[in-house]
Amino acid sequence: PLRYRSKLRELVKHEAEKNKSPWKTIGPAKVAVPSPNDFLQKRSKEPKLAPKKKEQEGKRLLPLLPPRTYHPVIHIKKNFINKNAVAVITGEPKKPRHFCVDTRHGDKYLLEPSGLFPKYIKKKNYGVIPKYVTRRNEEMKREEEEYQARVLEQLKKKAMKTLSEEERTNILKALKKKWEEINHAYQGLPILTDTRYKRMHKEELELQLTQLEHDIAALEKHKTVYIADV
Fold this sequence. Notes:
- This protein is mainly alpha-helical.
- 43% of the residues lie in helices and 4% in strands.
- Among the domains are: 95-159; 160-229.
- It has five helices and four strands.
């Protein structure tokens, strides 16, 4: 069979040639060739300074005259040799520096920066408490006093009173007496706790003894006791 050919082939080809423009993708056919005289010269791309303005035609501004009170500075030549000689004669002699030799080859080093020379104990303020430490201690003491004053004020506001020594002793004796009574009852319990009532009674006595021991230890440990008015 013959090869298939489209009927619109010629029309498409004509339209493609019609809309096609020459040198569309490769640029113009003729390019301006650079002139041989426009070659790249040395330092031609460096920035150039603006040209200097020409002076006016023979009219050059003269400098202003100095005022009458102006006195020029006169440079006096100094004799440095005599100056140095006088400084050496009138100056204090240098004190010898202390060295320490620590090897048999004669290697030596300065004694002052080594820490072996007692230069700090010769200071006037050696052993004196620094001012900032004294000031800090005073501030801490003042803050502690203010804190104690605030605590006492809060205690007064809350209507708390201090328990006297006699009342504290009486309460302590009463607690110890109560502990002895409960302990006596606890010792009199039967060995065999086979019922629920016996177990509950034993646990209740143990709790009371523990609470009394805690209260007695607290009163014996703290000499000052505060009571709040609830």
